[in-house]
Design brief:
With 390 residues, the protein is an alpha/beta fold. It has a single domain, classed as Alpha-Beta Barrel (TIM Barrel), CATH 3.20.20.150. Helix content is 45%, strand content 11%. The chain has an eight-stranded parallel β-sheet with strand order 1-2-3-4-6-8-9-10. The protein has a two-stranded antiparallel ribbon with strand order 5-7. Strand 3, helix 4 and strand 4 form a beta-alpha-beta unit. Helix 7 runs parallel beside helix 8. The protein is globular and about 60 Å long. The structure holds alpha-D-psicofuranose and manganese (II) ion.
């Protein structure tokens, strides 16, 4: 690809969208303590109102992912209408097979066909939610795995998983996608049934073209070259989505770009190289984060800005100079082309892009000035605050 013009860079940035997770607006924590925060939403309607705040100030967050059953409501048509009224739409529907006693030894992989059927049924219910809300993406992350060698047969579990996934896949409407997430460990520690992108990809390829891989940046061993995985999945057209977040140690779910902004830049560089930033590229840029101690709406705004900054830097890479250096074996010149872009302060450029859309240049300042946090802290009194897992 060749170096992008200033106008192309600006229009690519203006068109980029990032999907927000409903659960990022509720309280969350660790197994030690879940802290509460004033003004936290008490139901999916209030979560969507908060999502809309992020979209209002960034102009870049027009979709929200839901988690079922955390976001169960009586009337999903009505929830979708509420979202539209707030200027957002319903994005991926996340299934949940990690909080039910029946799934102690597995869900889609369980040895007992009745438990497998129950887990498949849950996914069919999620597809019904998709039909009611206009969602096109069914996102599956499985907790399934084992803790001890010999506990279950590794290969049989893969066979059962393939069968269960095929049942779910056959229920999708033609415009729907199945997004299959992987994670190398947790909640089980000896085997995980979908531990890596290769396993996810194999299942997706067996299912068909509507199945693609989800890459959660927090789900890799330390030192994993994530941008290599991104390049590889893009090559075969199977990168369906990101779950963006940051990790220092395990699945920390911190704000994307907080722990390692350079890694995020390297990931976005592969996206730009593959021309996968286009809104119709099939890659859904989602956040999967939990905010334990920080203010939740502001943390989502910051996360959107972090993705935008990494994207802007990737768009600014002088592709002509980089290509020339690569072709001529100029190792240091090639590296410098990337580093020059990474070291550019893109905040003024992004402020201009926002202003060109009629927004404030600084979304965090705009949100703080709006008084929304104080307003909801006053209004949202009583009831039960939403929380991770409820
Ligand atoms: C699992 O760790 C995961 O990344 C999956 O995407 C879940 O649905 C999500 O976290 C819940 O926060
Ligand atoms: Mn995830």
């Amino acid at each position: 690809m060749s170096t992008q013009s200033d106008a192309d860079v600006r229009s690519a940035l203006a068109a980029q969208t990032i999907e927000l997770p409903s659960w990022a607006f509720g309280n969350s924590g660790t197994r030690f303590k879940v802290f509460s925060t004033e003004g936290v939403p008490r139901d999916p309607y209030e979560k969507i109102a908060d999502v809309a705040q992020v979209n209002n100030v960034t102009g870049a967050a027009p979709r929200v992912s839901l988690h079922i059953p955390w976001d169960l409501v009586d009337d999903f048509d009505d929830l979708a209408r509420h979202a539209r009224e707030h200027g957002v739409t319903i994005g991926a529907i996340n299934s949940n097979v990690f909080q039910d006693e029946d799934y102690k030894l597995g869900s889609l992989t369980h040895a007992d066909p009745k438990i497998r059927a129950k887990a498949v049924r849950h996914h069919l219910d999620c597809i019904d939610v998709m039909r009611a809300t206009g969602s096109t993406d069914l996102k599956i992350w499985l907790p399934d795995g084992t803790n001890y060698p010999g506990q279950d047969d590794i290969r049989s579990r893969q066979d059962r998983l393939a069968e269960s996934l095929a049942e779910i896949y056959s229920a999708l409407d033609p415009h729907m996608r199945l997004l299959l997430e992987y994670k190398f460990f947790e909640p089980y520690f000896y085997t995980t049934d979908i531990p890596d992108w290769g396993t996810s990809l194999l299942h997706c390829m067996a299912l068909g073209n509507q199945a693609t891989v989800v890459l959660d940046t927090g789900h890799h061993a330390p030192g994993t070259n994530i941008e290599f995985i991104v390049a590889q999945l893009l090559r075969v057209g199977r990168l369906g989505a990101f779950d963006f977040n940051s990790r220092f140690y395990a699945d920390d779910d911190l704000m994307v770009g907080a722990a390692d902004p350079f890694q995020l830049f390297r990931i976005m560089n592969e996206i730009v190289v593959a021309d996968a930033l286009r809104p119709d590229s099939g890659v859904n840029f989602m956040l999967d984060q939990c905010h334990n101690i920080e203010a939740k709406v502001q943390a989502q705004i910051r996360s959107v800005m972090n993705v935008q900054e990494a994207t802007a830097k990737a768009l600014l890479v002088d592709r002509d100079a980089l290509g020339e250096a690569q072709r001529s074996g100029d190792v240091l010149g090639a590296n410098a082309a990337l580093m020059d872009a990474y070291n550019t302060d893109v905040r003024p450029l992004l402020a201009e892009v926002r202003e060109s859309k009629g927004l404030a240049g600084d979304p965090i300042a705009a949100f703080r000035a709006s008084g929304y946090s104080e307003k909801v802290a006053d209004e949202r009194v009583g009831g039960t605050q939403a929380s991770w897992g409820a």
